[in-house]
Write a structure and sequence with these properties.
Shape: elongated
Helix content: 40-55%
Radius of gyration: 19 Å
CATH superfamily of the largest domain: P-loop containing nucleotide triphosphate hydrolases
């Protein structure tokens, strides 16, 4: 692997471009995010499963164009728009008439002002269950890109990064063992590290291979459930 397997980082998520690992699962999405000036109608929907890296990639894009990142339920004032805007977890507002109306007006204001929009969600807008027809039609006009489940190499890289975010060092042997046994799912990585960290904290010890094995044994087939 081209990167070291241990990191000396503080226990917080690292969201910079250099911390985002590119592989077959996300290369197409990264390429489209980098070409944001070419987005259709100045807007893109970024989809992927739990822990896929949508928020990290959104931070990478935000650093490029001075974008503000907010949750879809915490919309900004349409009369005070930033240079660019990320709206996260957009499908969470589907079925809420007031939230859909607010997003509709914000969308229209941003497009009118030429403010680029990046939406993140688990699924494409056609699956959100939007009830406001005008909002559904606006979202259908957005570009769409997806982060796929990871291959082994990308899974290893994400595992190393998320472990480092928690201050956990992984030896090559431990990394290979864990990667071979865990689901091919980004969400499983986050769940595994969180569970191992909790086990170690309960014993007031650093995370060991035993903690990781125990966390892996308790990992559900669908970590997002």
């Amino acid at each position: 692997m081209p990167r070291q397997l241990t990191f000396d980082l503080p226990p917080r998520p690292a969201m910079g471009r250099d911390d985002f690992f590119v592989g077959p699962a996300n290369a197409a999405a990264v390429a489209l995010i980098d070409r944001w000036r070419d987005w259709p109608n100045g807007k893109m929907v970024l989809t992927g499963g739990h822990g896929a890296g949508k928020t990290h990639l959104a931070h990478v894009w935000a650093a490029q164009c001075d974008a503000r990142i907010v949750g879809a339920r915490d919309l900004v004032d349409p009369n005070a728009l930033p240079p660019a805007l990320v709206l996260e977890d957009c499908e969470d507002i589907a079925g809420d008439p007031e939230a859909e109306e607010r997003l509709f007006h914000l969308h229209n204001a941003a497009v009118a002002e030429g403010v680029p929009l990046l939406f993140t969600a688990r699924h494409a807008p056609s699956r959100w269950g939007i009830r406001l027809p005008d909002l559904a039609s606006r979202m259908a006009q957005s570009g769409l890109t997806h982060i796929d489940p990871p291959d082994d190499q990308l899974l290893m890289m994400v595992l190393v990064k998320q472990a480092a975010d928690h201050g956990i060092e992984l030896t090559p042997k431990t990394l290979s063992e864990i990667t071979a046994r865990m689901p091919r799912d980004f969400g499983a990585v986050a769940e595994l590290i969180s569970r191992a960290d909790d086990l170690a904290l309960s014993e007031k010890k650093p995370v060991t291979r035993a903690h990781l094995r125990a966390a892996l044994a308790d990992l559900p087939d669908d970590p997002s459930s």
